[in-house]
Amino acid sequence: MKLSAKALMVLLCMLTFVQLNAAVVEIDGVNYSNEGNGLADGEAIISGINHGTIPAEVVIPEKVTINEVEYTVARIHREAFAYNSTITSVTLPAGLKYIDNYAFSQCSNLAEIKGFPEKLDYVGHATFNNTKWLSDLKDTASQGLYLVGGWVL
């Protein structure tokens, strides 16, 4: 298949546009993206972490800048922090809307969650499974039910 010079130029421009507008940025070992399922304009998702550089105390900012545009951190992707034994504390931003399935699952040393948003739209299945934080809640809960930020876990 032979492409004309004009068609090739249009294709290159389209690829450049997509590349400039969709990106992942790493901040303190956490990867943020402006592209993902269920994101509204102006929202970012935590897509994962860099296990080698993640600090023990993770502070998720309210907003992140990607390609010189500011986005509200609205979602934590499925398994984004899962299976990390370094993390001991996480501070969540007030504007967070979704914490997907298994987001913090198997983070065995995660003992503290700060700033649990009052208006979460969704907390996924087994989000805090096998964390010290959830184990401590279970130890103090009656009948196995406990209330966190308006959610019964």
Strands, helices and their partners?
Layout: H1 5-21, E1 24-27, E2 30-33, E3 43-49, E4 57-59, E5 63-66, E6 69-76, E7 89-91, E8 98-99, E9 112-114, E10 122-123, H2 132-140, E11 147-148, E12 151-152
Parallel strand pairs: 3-6, 4-7, 6-8, 7-9, 8-10
Antiparallel strand pairs: 1-2, 2-3, 5-6, 11-12
Name the structural class.
alpha/beta
- Percent strand equals 25-35%
Rg from alpha-carbon coordinates: 19 Å
Low-pLDDT residue spans: 10-20
Q: How many strands in all?
A: 12
> What is the helix tally?
2
Shape: globular
Report what the structure shows:
- This protein is α/β, with parallel strands linked by helices and 153 residues long.
- It is built from two helices and twelve strands.
- It has helices at residues 5-21, 132-140, and strands at 24-27, 30-33, 43-49, 57-59, 63-66, 69-76, 89-91, 98-99, 112-114, 122-123, 147-148, 151-152.
- The chain starts with a helix and ends with a strand.
